[in-house]
Fold this protein.
Amino acid sequence: MARYLYDLCGRDERLRFSPYCWRVRMALAHKGLSVETVPWRFTDKQALAFADYDKVPVLCDGEQVVTDSYDILCYLDTTYPEAPLLGEGLAKQRVLFFKHFVERSVTPSLFRIVALDLFQAVHPDDRDYFRTTREARFGCTLEEFHDPERGRAELQKVLAPVREQLRSAPFIDGDSPAGADYLLFGSAMWVHCVSREPWTTPGDPVDAWFERMLDLHDGLARNAFTIRDLD
Amino acid sequence: MARYLYDLCGRDERLRFSPYCWRVRMALAHKGLSVETVPWRFTDKQALAFADYDKVPVLCDGEQVVTDSYDILCYLDTTYPEAPLLGEGLAKQRVLFFKHFVERSVTPSLFRIVALDLFQAVHPDDRDYFRTTREARFGCTLEEFHDPERGRAELQKVLAPVREQLRSAPFIDGDSPAGADYLLFGSAMWVHCVSREPWTTPGDPVDAWFERMLDLHDGLARNAFTIRDLD
């Protein structure tokens, strides 16, 4: 059965840095499902018309079309119940909180660290779109928003509960990784792929976790093309 | 079977404001278990010697003595498995993250809002102990740490994922309250019992959640004695 994932690409087609697409790529690997990625750019709205959606990730799983990264994780758990990502009942309700934590608390601080690197990473044809949408969201220019030092200081505080969690287990979800790990890891890959700015400190449990995550699933993320491969 | 909970009291014996004791009182009510509280003060270390512990809560459940609020919640789930508080597997791992979130991110901001109110709420004989231990932890005086406006600004950001979670369900743990709700609610009661400082804003989903929590279990928390009853 053919399985395709529409995946954001940057100024080089091999540069894939969407945090939402990384969640899904790791989740598919977690389920042992192979996928072919289809490079997509922000302004390529027409390419997604078939899905009645205007953003990635979009997963085509045989006849099934699923949009939105979190809905894709739900879909994967329902369709391929082995090795749960989100789980059910209280587990699912609590990973939804973790999703909000990543999106509302972690991601904005990471954005401060890499705003201008991200701008450089997107395709030149996409840059106007990227700048306009992000500046409207922040209420200031990308140049004003970009502040790696402030981002790192915020992140240091925001990640305190993650750091504490990782003192008692190798993964956020315990002895092995699951949905919560992939939700945070997606945002970490976003930074890792487009920037050389450090966002963790050696010796921090979060740093050791990130290294472990890079190695999962035959080094899927470790082998990702990054800005370092472009120079 | 006799069941006792050693519970921190303040300058009035009816004033009970420990966030860790409130977690346990709500958890016991959640399980439908009655309990008799034993008022305890910070410097009353001798009274807890039987438990080989120097803080509250301490639960005496018949012959069983259990210390530490989180361990008590675990004990309750094991001994009284109906109506899980923490749950098992992924659910339990994720509520552990939520515990760290409450203790590392929420509680410090709440402390800024009520530091001096807390100081006034503790028993006069306990105030030296309270001041010395807290000032050592913060690295500054209580007066320097006390900053309600800054606390509220921090809290506004820190609670963003909770607010988002409460847009889709009445409780953090979904349609009905469970462990995550009680973990956060304990800290909220701490503020509510000792201070008139607002920590939520009317119209905020967190405010509506707090009101719902106050009403649970026949208004156990709604009927609590607070600083307002002292004037």
In short: Chain B has two domains: 3-79, 89-229.
